[in-house]
């Protein structure tokens, strides 16, 4: 019988015990033009590793079973947020939550469901204009102002310097006790050089909102607009777009109605001080709380 001897069971070893291919397998591959010179052996696998990246743990050489897990963070396992708290979380670039805390939902003494969130102002950030006998304190939920009867018409204001450019200032003010006759509290805009003022003032006794010009803190000039307001009114707003000033009012700090507009060149010149004020006369005392200020 011609030919070469072959194992009777037709089974051929192709890998030696050391992981290298047998001579038979090498010849077989050469006959079929299969390149196995760069083949990876089992021993080579020990030098190939799975590396655990950022936020992962585990890994190792692939000559054994390899596991990669998410690395534990310092976040305490649990449920965050409830009826009085919101969950404040920090997320890193890998999308992991690295910190989670409960933050109390601030009502500011006046905010409620369906109303804009409140940002209480800090008294130290404001400067008195024509303070007289007026006083103010931080009450933990805003600034409480008391403006006693001055014996004459006066505007007492707390204000901040407003930088050039557009602005959008929103203020929530809650009256406590208020006098009659004149607008009692509101939003104050002034040109420091001329002393001229634009005032959005609310008179609770008559439930009337006034848009007024004042030539100074003791001298009313003229009315731009006025309108009756429901007693629940609390929110004031002023914007500047270009050189146009616009006053707004709102019941909830979300839905705003315009009170009117005026070009700065019409009367005041450029507004550079913005704040809140009480306009009192010789028969009235104003007490109110500034519960929220944004944009200032």
Task: Offer a concise description of the structure.
By secondary structure, the chain is mainly beta. The protein has helices spanning 23-31, 42-45, and strands at residues 49-51, 56-61, 68-70, 85-91, 97-104, 127-129, 135-138, 143-147, 154-161, 167-177, 185-190, 197-203, 208-216, 219-228, 235-241, 244-250, 257-263, 273-280, 286-294. It is elongated, with a radius of gyration of 38 Å.
Keywords:
296 residues, mainly beta, Jelly Rolls, seven-stranded antiparallel β-sheet, 2 helices, 4% helix
Overall geometry comes to elongated
Q: How many structural units, i.e. domains?
A: 3
The percentage helix is: under 10%
CATH topology heading of the largest domain: Jelly Rolls
In spatial order, strands of the major sheet run 6-9-18-11-12-13-14
What is the CATH architecture descriptor of the largest domain? Sandwich
Spell the H/E element sequence: HHEEEEEEEEEEEEEEEEEEE
Could you characterize what this model shows?
The radius of gyration is 38 Å and the shape is elongated. It folds into three domains: 23-70, no CATH class; 73-105, no CATH class; 123-294, Jelly Rolls. The model is unreliable at 107-112 (pLDDT under 50). Helices cover 4% and strands 43% of the residues. The strands form four sheets. The protein has a seven-stranded antiparallel sheet, with no helix packed on it. Strands 7-8-19-10-15-16-17 form a seven-stranded antiparallel sheet, with no helix packed on it. A three-stranded antiparallel sheet has the order 1-2-3, with no helix packed on it. The chain is built from two helices and 19 strands. It is mainly beta.
């Amino acid at each position: 019988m011609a030919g070469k001897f072959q194992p009777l069971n037709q089974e051929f070893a192709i890998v030696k015990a050391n992981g290298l291919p047998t001579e038979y397998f090498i010849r077989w591959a050469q006959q079929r033009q299969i390149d196995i010179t760069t083949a990876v052996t089992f021993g080579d696998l020990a030098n190939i590793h799975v590396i655990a990246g950022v936020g992962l743990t585990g890994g190792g050489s692939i000559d054994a079973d390899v596991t990669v897990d998410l690395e534990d963070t310092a976040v305490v396992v649990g449920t965050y947020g409830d009826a009085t708290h919101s969950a404040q979380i920090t997320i890193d670039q890998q999308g992991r939550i690295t910190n989670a805390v409960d933050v109390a939902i601030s009502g500011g003494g006046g905010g409620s469901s369906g109303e804009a969130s409140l940002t209480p102002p800090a008294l130290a950030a404001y400067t008195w204009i024509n303070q007289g006998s007026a006083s103010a304190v931080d009450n933990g939920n805003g600034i409480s102002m008391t403006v006693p009867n001055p014996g004459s018409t006066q505007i007492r204001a707390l204000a901040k310097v407003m930088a050039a450019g557009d602005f959008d200032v929103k203020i929530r003010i809650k009256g406590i006790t208020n006098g009659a006759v004149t607008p009692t509290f509101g939003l104050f805009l002034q040109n420091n050089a001329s002393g001229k003022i634009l005032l959005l003032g609310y008179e609770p006794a008559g439930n009337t909102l006034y848009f007024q010009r004042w030539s100074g803190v003791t001298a009313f000039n003229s009315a731009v607009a006025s309108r009756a307001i429901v007693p629940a009114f609390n929110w004031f707003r002023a914007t500047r777009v270009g050189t146009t000033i616009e006053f707004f009012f709102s019941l909830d700090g979300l839905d705003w109605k315009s009170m009117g507009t005026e070009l700065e060149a019409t009367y005041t010149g450029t507004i550079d001080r913005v704040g809140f004020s009480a306009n009192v006369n010789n028969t009235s005392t104003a007490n109110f709380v500034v519960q929220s200020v944004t944009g200032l």
